[in-house]
Every structure is written in C-alpha cells, then in structure tokens.
Amino acid sequence: MSINYSEKIPNNVNLSEDRTLQRALEQWQPNFLSWWDDMGPDGSNDFDVYLRTAVSVDPQGWAQFGHVKMPDYRWGIFLNPGDAERKIHFGDHLGEKAWQDVPGEYRANLRRIIVTQGDTEPASVEQQRHLGLTAPSQYDLRNLFQVNVEEGRHLWAMVYLLHKHFGRDGREEAEALLERRSGQEDNPRILEAFNEKTPDWLSFFMFTYFTDRDGKFQLCALAESAFDPLARTTKFMLTEEAHHMFVGESGVSRVVQRTCQMMNELKTDDPKKLRAAGVIDLPTLQRYLNFHFSVTVDLFGADESSNAATFYSTGLKGRYEEGKRTDDHQLRGQSYKILQVANGTLSEKEVPMLNALNEVLRDDYIKDSVAGVERWNKVIDKAGIPFRLKVPHKAFHRNIGALKGIKVSPDGRVVSEAEWNAKIGEWLPTAEDRAYVQSLMGRVVEPGKFANWIAPPVMGINRQPVDFEYVRFN
Amino acid sequence: MNAPADPALIKQHLIDPEICIRCNTCESICPVQAITHDSRNYVVDASKCNLCMDCISPCPTGSIDNWRTLPRVAAYTIEAQLEWDELPAEVPVESFGAAGAPPADMAAPAPVQDSHADAGAAVAPAFNSARFGATLPPWSAAHPYTNLYGPKAAEKFVTATVVGNVRVTEVGKEYDTHHIVLDFGATPFPVLEGQSIGIIPPGNDASGRTHHVRQYSVASPRNGERPGYNNVALTIKRVLEDHQGNPVRGVASNYMCDLAVGDTVQVTGPFGTSFLMPNHPRSNIVMICTGTGSAPMRAMTEWRRRLRNSGKFEGGKLTLFFGARTKEELPYFGPLQNLPKDFIDINFAFSRAAGKPKRYVQDAMRERAADLAPLLADRNTYFYVCGLKSMEEGVLLALRDVAVQSGGDWEALAAGLKQDGRLHLETY
C-alpha cells in the first residue's frame, strides 16, 4: 500500500496501469494547481510550511512531517487497503458482494453524492483564503495551511472517483468543481454553509469544530457505502479530517482559556471591560457558537427525505457507525421521532425511520458536538467562573426542512416574531460583535508569540516545541 | 514481542482526556482493539494494548502519547479511565512496593548496567526510545503482510499445528527456553524475519474473560523453519517464578512450552512493518539482543546463511552482540558456535558467569568500538535491538559513545539512523 511518488500524481491505486485515467487526471492536475494559485491561501506560495504528508496509508506512513512549499505539496490519490471479500452490510443489497464498479441504476445518485461531498472541499479553502493574513501565531498559521492542503487532497480523492467511475460526466463534474466559487452569486458552491464568509479566526475555529465535524459524519456514513472505492477513499480522508476538528476544538478552547484568565485577572465578567482588555467575552463566544451550530445542522438536510431513504436502501450511504449497530440494517417498518411545530409549540412525531435518516445522522452529530462543548466548559469550570456554553436547541435558527423559518429560541421555545426580533442580538452575533472580533485580528508570526486574545497550545505539532518555526516566510 | 507472561510492572498507555478530541482515529487504527470510548473519554485497555505504537503518529492532538509505570495489578481500569477529567499524577514506582506489589527488580533480569540496583530506573528510564527507533523499514526491506488474522480481519485466527518443540538451553529451572515450530499447512501465513505473531492461549483468565493475545517474534526465515515449508519457529522462555522466587506461572509461555507435536494452536498476525531486514547486496546487519530477544536475530542470520549457501547473494557483515546471565541459559548457544567466523562476528556477554566480573552487551559493544564506528557511519548498515526494555538505554548510550569517540555528531547521526530506517528497537 505504499505510495508511488515517482509518478506525477502520487497514488496507491496503480494509476500507471490505467493510461486513459492517468491522462485524464494529468490534464486535470494543472487546472487544480491554477485553481490553488487563484483561490488557495493568499500570498503563501513561497512559504515553507511544516506539513504532514502521507507516504503510505498504514499507521507508520501517513504522518510524515517536514517543511514544504504548499504548491509542491504531494496531492494524490490514496485509498485504504481493500478487502476483496467485503460484503454489503445494510440496505436492500445486504449480504451481497460490495461493488467495485458503479451499478448503472445508481450512477446518478452516486455521482450526486460524490459531487456534493467534493464541492465542500475546495469551498472551504476559498472561504479561508485570507485568514493567513491575520494569523494569531505561526502555530495557528501552520494548522490553517495543513487544513487547506488536506481539503485540497480531499478534492483529489473525489475527483479520482469521478474520473475513474463516471466517464465523461465525471470529467465534466470534476472541471465544474474547480469553476464554482464560494459566495459567488452566479456560480456558487452547492451547500449554503460553504458560501458563508469565514471572516475571522474565531469563525474559522468554530467552522472547523462544527462544520468539519459535519464532514466527519458525512464521511463516516459514506465509509459504509456498498460502492467499495468510495468507502475506501472516505476512510482514509477521515484520518486527515481528525486534524481539522482538533484545530477547531483546541482553538476555541484556547480562546475560552484566555478570556477566563483575563476575567480572573480583572475580576470582572463585564463584556465592555473585557473587550477593552482585548479578549472575546463569553456571551460573544456563545453567539458565535449558536450561529455555527445552527448553520451546520442544516447541512444534514431535510428531516424527512425520500432521497435519504433511497440512498440508504440502495446501499449508497450508511448510518454513522453502521457496522457497530446491532439492528437489522434494513430499517423497514421502524420509526424515528422528528420535531414538528403544532399549535404553536414544538412536539415530536413518529415517521418511518428510512425517511428520517438525515435526522438520525443529525442527532448523532449533535451528541458528538455537545461532548466537545462540555470540554470547553471544563476550562471555564477550572477557572472558577460560573458560566456554561451550550449548544442551542436543534430547532433554533433553521433554514431547511420542516423547521425552516420557524422562530425558536436557543432554549427551544417557539417565540413570536416580536420576541425574535427583540432577542436576536442576544442569540446570534451582531454586526458589532463581528466588527469587534475583526478588530482583534492582527498578524502575529514571531515563533512562540501569540495574539492577546488566545492562549498558547499545551503542546506543539509532532512533539515540536510551541515556539518551533512552523512557517518559514523566506 | 516475546513479552514475559506476567511482568509485575507495566508501562500503561493512557490518553489525556484534557487534550483528546475524540476523533476516533486511534480506535479505528488499533490492530488489537485495545481502545474504546463512551460519550466522555477515549481509553486504552491495558490488558489488550501490545504497545505496537500504531496509534501514536496518527493522533492529531498528541493526547495519545501518555504513559504511567505501575504494577500490572494496579493498572487503571477502563471504568476508572472513563471517569477522568484529567490524567492522574505519576506515582513513584517505589511506593507500590509498600503496598505489597512485586518489587520492580524482577522486571530487569537482563544484562544491563547496574540498573538492578535501582529498581525505579530499571523499568522507568527517563529515556524515550521512540525518539531513536525508526518507524520505517530499510529501503530494501521486503513488503510485509500484516494483520491477516485478528479481530479486524475476516478470519479471527488461524489454526497451526505443532511440528516441533525442543529445549534450546541447558536444563535449569530459571531458564527453560524452547524452540517451537508451528506449521500452517495450506493456510496462507507469509511472514518475514523481524515480524511477530500472536498466540491465543486457550481458556479464560481469573475474571472469566478469554486470555489476551501474546506476541512472539518469529525465529525462522521467510521461507520457513524447514526451507520450502509453510512453518515458523518461535523462541519461548518458560516463566515459572519471579526473581524473589515467588511462583508466577506465565499463562502463554507455559502453554507453549508444554505443547506436544500434533497439538493445535490459535495464531493471529503477522504483525510489524518496520523491524525488517535489508535485502540489498553488501548491506550489513548489527544485532544486539538478550535472552529470547535473539529470536528475530536468529531469523535474519538464518536467512542470510541460506542466501550465502545459495551462492547467489553477496551479503555484508553480520555482527551479533548477545547477552545472557550465563552461557547455559543462552538460547541457540551451540548452533551459534558452529557458524563460520567470516559469516558472522559473534560477541557474547555474560552477566552472572561464575568467578568473572559482570559483563553486559554494551560492555562488549564498547570493546568493539573501533569496528562499530565505521559500521555506524556506513549507510548500508542496519542496527537491530531486541530484548528486555531495560537494555535499551545502555545500548543506545554505548552507540552514542562509539559515535562521539570517532568524532561524530550523535544527534545528527541518530536522526539519520531513524529517518533512514537504520535503527530498530524492539524491547518489552
């Protein structure tokens, strides 16, 4: 399973044995690099960045560290080892052999799933491209770049599937992935959350915590797929995705820690005084959290979805940890509770589970998100401050499915238009909040130095010291 | 690898709950399913973890790399770890002695500098072996197959038949070491010198659970103990008592040593992707081992011997530093004496030879500094260390001294050794 680096496109899929595919991907490669040049991290092409590169997909080989220039990063095609005997373990095809090729009848749906996943990868690079100019430290700058190059590699992973298994349609979709632009009105990215701006580092940390975690859950569901190349690709992507969530969870945690430290120093919880001292007050953090959480739970799609049922029954997309569940893995006749608004209050209703699979994945995601928020609360507890961050109710600020546009408070009450308008400034970041956070974003790049609004990490990357030269600016 | 059945002191692998982000990477990567989680923490089961280190580099946070030395009986349970908000403080090893646990001394019977005198230092050296040991194989290593049989493979184990079981030390109750040959028949079990295999002892432990898998290095070369046959040899020391004379009956080692020809054994593996020999012509191998740590060295030596006999391979120098307490308990002592001197350069070190001063492998290495220095500098030379954990520090310090005395820069050299897959440590 070692990766052939002697080839133009590093890969562990014997690319050189498939000349047609190799030529197609070699034609796509310059377009990718030119996209990276246009839309990749701003002004960073000459930096030597301490990055992790995979040399093989086994535990010993996939985390090799060294300084590289990002345009020279070895983007390539890496799949987890296959199991020739693998069987489909859910849906109507349960027990049949996993597919090595796309069955004709599922071609359109599979292509749609792969394109939607693939579209998020370049989108987030585009969203984050200016952040390097306001990094709070070299350590954070390096983490941002690591996230960016790996999103780039995830795009490669999806493009490989499109080229290899979807013929001409696939090649056209692969081109389109490089043509859409995050936030561009006439040719936007497919999913709404990927057209939002990532204007500051707090948003970046919240995004990597909440939105990349959506990525984790989507990838986990695809890693169960009956289409074996998709399952193997996404499994390897998951090992990379873990770093992105680490950046988010530890980033927010360090912001919380710095704020608590200042609160104790100044013996105050007054946001005005804290802002004057240059840290981000906890209520503002809560509002950012509310925003990113609610935008991200929308990404799981409508709460009742016949597409979700089809994707599951046909074996294209499983549930989170499908293999670890002990039910019949077909779910016919089973039900699941989803939320609805009736008579002015939220209530639950039972629907066929197959139609509610988006909701099932969303609920798994929420459980996982809450656990991390509790870690942030431990930092607050440790500082002796009586404040708790909370994820808002899942009906809060929703823009998709049955809850779309319904006015629900973060604690789960249906509220009037008037109350919503009166309280929205307490619940979601205001223009003033965003302007304040933006005002903190100065560039700190001296090794070992950190911006005032964030605490240093407890340890460096790959056992390097915190003041290691993670980025050489040349 | 070749772990004594019930070492009194263990280095327990723990995950720092304050830093862990529950990304599940470690759990999905662990080849023996030692890692599990609830909605709060990810934790490591000390009875399953085989210290293979597969989980260390993929961890995005560094939370995975935490260790506590403590008696096996006092190991933190999964249940306790799930409750943690932070890691417990390190408890000095000495304090366990007072609680009636076996003293640390017994974990260090190996020929090591006077580390016996300091129980704490013997098992908890302030020395990070991972810093020096390579995680990549030599460039000319053959491709290893791993985890063909095990909890995550399609087949949980393979059944092997015992086709040989002979004692390879002189008779003595403290050092009854056996050479055991297992045959796989027609079942695929490709294995390379330096890899190890797992043995599942039959039955249950005191708490009613099935015994965990014990790993042993193969002592035979890639084409079989008997050339051309699908079999492997193991070197297993029977564990009967600790060094205070307290009876401690090693479950797996006694099971294995008592097997009769024709018995069957459940086997998992193979394991190991870096402790592999170089295969290019004129590549040199320096082997440093104690006791049953000789198993992989025997395998590599035998493969080179067969290649040499074939007349089609120009091997480099083989150098062996082999330590034991006495000549009587040194496995394969007889056969080793019969190898041609121009094939392998053998250096013994006996720490308890009657009427002679104690001599450890690192003493023998220092005596051969003049010959080791050019080998250290030669990029075609690969170093292998296998034996009890406590030998590691002494051996590395000896290598460092050899390098420094010859005017080398040890840190740069050590980094190169690691990066080029030239220094491999396998200690237990």
Tag the structure with descriptive keywords.
heterodimer, A: 474 residues, mainly alpha, Ribonucleotide Reductase, subunit A, 3-stranded antiparallel sheet, two-stranded antiparallel sheet, 47% helix, B: 428 residues, alpha/beta, Alpha-Beta Plaits, Rossmann fold, Elongation Factor Tu (Ef-tu), domain 3, 5-stranded parallel sheet, 12 helices, 15 strands, 22% helix, globular
Greatest chain-chain contact: A-B, 29 and 27 residues
Beta-strand residue fraction of chain A? 5-15%
Q: In DSSP terms, counting alpha (H) and pi (I) runs of 4 or more, how many helices of chain B?
A: 12
Order of helices and strands of chain B: EHEEEHHHHEEEEEHEEHEHEHHEHHE
Question: Which CATH architecture of chain A?
Answer: Orthogonal Bundle
Instruction: Write down the CATH class of chain A.
Output: Mainly Alpha
Number of domains as seen in the coordinates of chain B: 3
What does this structure look like?
The complex is a heterodimer of chains A (474) and B (428). With 474 residues, chain A is mainly alpha-helical. Chain A has 12 helices and 5 strands. The radius of gyration of chain A is 23 Å and the shape is globular. The model of chain A has no long low-confidence stretch (mean pLDDT 93). Chain B has 428 residues and is an alpha/beta fold. Chain B folds into 3 domains: 9-102, 2-Layer Sandwich (Alpha-Beta Plaits); 131-140 and 274-427, Rossmann fold; 158-271, Elongation Factor Tu (Ef-tu), domain 3 (Beta Barrel), CATH 2.40.30.10. The interface between A and B is medium-sized, with 29 and 27 residues.
Outline of the structure:
Helix content of chain A is 47%, strand content 6%. By secondary structure, chain A is mainly α. Chain A is globular, with a radius of gyration of 23 Å.
